[in-house]
Amino acid sequence: QVLHTSPDSLYNTNAVGKAEMPDVPTFNSIYDMLSTIPGVEVRGHTVIIRGSMSISDNASTDPLYLLDGVEIDSPDELSPYDIHSIEVVKDGSNVIYGSKAVGGVIVFHSKAAQMAKEAEKKARQEEAAKRAAEREKKKAEKTAARAAKQAGAGN
Q1: In this structure, which of 67, 99, 115, 134 has its CB flanked by the most CB atoms within 10 Å?
Q2: Torsion on CA atoms 77, 4, 68, 62, rounded to nearest 10
Q3: Whole-angstrom Cα distance, residue 87 to residue 60?
Q4: Which residue pairs, CB below 8 angstroms and at least 24 apart, start in 133-138?
């Protein structure tokens, strides 16, 4: 299975990458899906992000898992069919997630959240277009009223 790394992850040099998943996944589990991402090593249900390291020998090197921005304990219950994209963050970029992220961060973006974002964006665009049309209508009405007033004053 070939995953295409999204160009919007290129701004962050410490990110392993963001991979968009195919519409019809051919993965048996979320771990199969994770194993195809460069920089991610999967051994059974253990996930290691290469390049991430702990600050002490007894600190956990488990990654922090997020689903649509909300922390989850593990990806065990996630279905590959529900995932739109996966973003892997390591090194200095994971500092914004706190000490739980010393082993890196794996951010799952669900298809449901992606569809909601797209619907919200479309609604905002439609609302902006409606406001622009209303402004144009008011502008045309003012112009017509001025023209009528000038025509009446000229008589």
Answers
A1: 67
A2: 60
A3: 20
A4: none
